[in-house]
Amino acid sequence: MKHDDSPQRGYQSFGLEKTAWLRDFHQDVGFLAGREEDVEKNDEKEFFSIGPPEDVEYPNVWPNESLLPGFREFMEDHFQRCRAFALHIVEATAMGLDVPATALLNRCLPDSSYARCIVYPQSSVQSLSSGKSQRIWPHTDEGVLTLLFQDSVGGLELEDRPNGRIFVPVAPTPEGAPSEIVVNTSDALQRWTNNSIRAGLHQVNLPGGLKDADSGVVPARYSYPFFLGPNFDASIGPLLHFVSDDNPANYEEMKYLEYCNMLIGGNYQNSSPAQMAKEAKL
Q: Sign (positive/negative) of CA torsion 125, 226, 11, 24?
């Protein structure tokens, strides 16, 4: 994978992203580090990514309007609505944590959010049970929080943290019903709060009805996650409110862009988990 500072925009082909490389989650430091044997494990998905409509430095890449009339207008409007809602959640979170409303919000503006239209193509139980492929391997998201819309197929699972690496299914949207929003916390929020709020470890596995099957067809699944990201130049070190003699800082200062590049750039291909943790100054 080429190391590139540019955010993802446009179409990303099947198998390009490998979340298995991020699968070993170290609860004490909140860092994801891959194992060498995970490099060959695949994600069975493809997706289309968009960023803020006003971003001229990293502009979005859109299909021709004649091919998908109204697609760009709809997606830009939905992006703006998701961003406004996510920022309200950030303000409410600050209130609940008894910190100034701007303490978290100021690190988000202007934001580096992005969204994805994800397709998990039809597959087989055998393929997704092989240990070599999964729709998405266990991981946390790198930003502040994620808003997820999903269809009725199922397969999304969240870690049951008190029981340690046990995953529980998230009920999918019933067929024909309005989509409910799944809100998941992410790495930056964990770091800002010095582990007071943990990032949610999650995966996409076989749907519940196929968990015990030896064979069968796994239907295609569609989802739309919106990832609220901090300002690229913002620190993702802990806020002073969450640091004390009894709870010293678990993370040193680091720009969010540096963190993103370390996670999804070429460093993964060339560094051991120990070296990556050192680079992250955790």
A: negative
Q: Which pLDDT tens digit goes with each residue over 206-254?
A: 888 888 888 899 899 999 999 999 999 999 999 999 999 999 999 999 9
DSSP code for 135: S
Decide if 258 contacts 118 (C-beta within 8 A).
Answer: no
Q: In 3D, which of 218, 215, 214, 261 has the Cα closest to residue 236?
A: 261
Burial 212-231 (b: 16+ CB within 10 A, else e): eeeeeebbebebbbbbbbbb
**Segment (H or E) for 244:** none
Report which DSSP code applies to 175: T
Stated pTM of the model: 0.84
* H helix or E strand, kind and range, residue 149: strand 145-150
Pairing of strands 156-159, 136-139: unpaired
